[in-house]
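TICKET #2291
ISSUE: user wants both folds in one file
ATTACHMENT 1:
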Amino acid sequence: MNSERGDWIGNLARFFSVVFHPLFIPLYGLLIIYSSPTLLSFIPFEMKRIIFVLVTANNIILPLSVAAILYSRGAIKTFNARDRNERVLLLTFALMMYSVTAVLLMKIPVPNLFKAYFISIAIVTLITLVITAFYRLSLHAAGIGGLLSLVAFMILLYNISSTWQLITVLLLGGAVMSSRIYLDDHKPSEIWSGLFIGGGVMSVALYLLLK
């Protein structure tokens, strides 16, 4: 009975870890912006589609393809990048692609929040890359921290009520971070440091870019 319960919890923890992998977090942030009760939700569908395709291609499809190639050639052992060298390698490529996305967004007429958001993601990735050289913080938690900062910043910037978004991110974030601990992928200290670094850097970057 206990083993069945453990298997169920373990499968649920793995589900949260995969669905809310750091690779997908920027896309979720984009969807939060789209669904927010601000004028940003009324931007033309064609513009939304362009941004969505750009983010999906640059920050999900390409990184997954590169990770698959590295895995097939033995450069990385798992897609979770548990080894420090693997994390540095994948974070470096992610930083390049986030930077490309930010540059491309700056060249097209989109609202400033979209540009600031992806520039901030690139900055968070750079900081976590530097920290990874000497400390193994949770990238999942850093992503959740970034999402929380995005929602909080939008509430303050646009004076809107996004309670359901904030509660959703808090609940799902708690589930994701608990999953990382349950699967023994991170210690609580690595989870909390990832959360505060991701959230703190994102908040400062958004403030400086949009003030």
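ATTACHMENT 2:
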Amino acid sequence: MNSPANTPDSAVNVAENLTRLQARIATAAKESGRAAEAVQLIAVSKTKPLSLVQAAVAAGHACFGENYAQELADKAEQQAAEWHFIGPLQSNKVKLVANAASWVHSIDRLKTAQRLSSMRDPALSPLNVCLQVNISAEPQKAGVQVEEVEALLAQVSALPRLRLRGLMCIPAPDDTNAFARMAALAADLRAKGFELDVLSMGMSRDFESAILAGATHVRIGTAIFGSRQ
């Protein structure tokens, strides 16, 4: 049998993949001492056709992640769902995301947060946001440095039309302690008075380890929709 990683889009059984994945998430959550409902699955549908998103919706899933602003805006216009933006956000694309997304996980600059706040339609509920932390201190990767997180949190939390929720990371593949360090960072920040209830970490290759460390949101694409062709 073909695995999701090498199955053409037309042959992917999204409903079956979601069922298997939710079972694995529930097991990992139980091992971490939490209920399955404590972990939100974000189905990452970037570059995948809307038909696969609709298959997931038909299977009862309604939370999706996109890396590209225009793709998120286009899909959100055609399919009602909870849309999460999880990629780098260019200044000229902020308006697309500000009003099409419910969440932005990838804030690493005050300017981006300010633009999201100013462009969010006041008629909409506040935009949920997370700071992306460069937890592995990789020079080529986006994200705020650990020592700068607290200052940026304070600035972002003061902006209107945004609701600061937590932290996100994409650690280096060989950084086996990254998720534990993220959990410790979040705990330290909560102790300092920041109301953070989200740890967005873990993807297809490592989501179980992330859940064991305390992840509340996992971002998974390949295990649901197959690899990008």
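RESOLUTION: both attachments delivered.
EXTRA DETAIL ON ATTACHMENT 2: The domain at 4-225 is CATH 3.20.20.10 (TIM Barrel).
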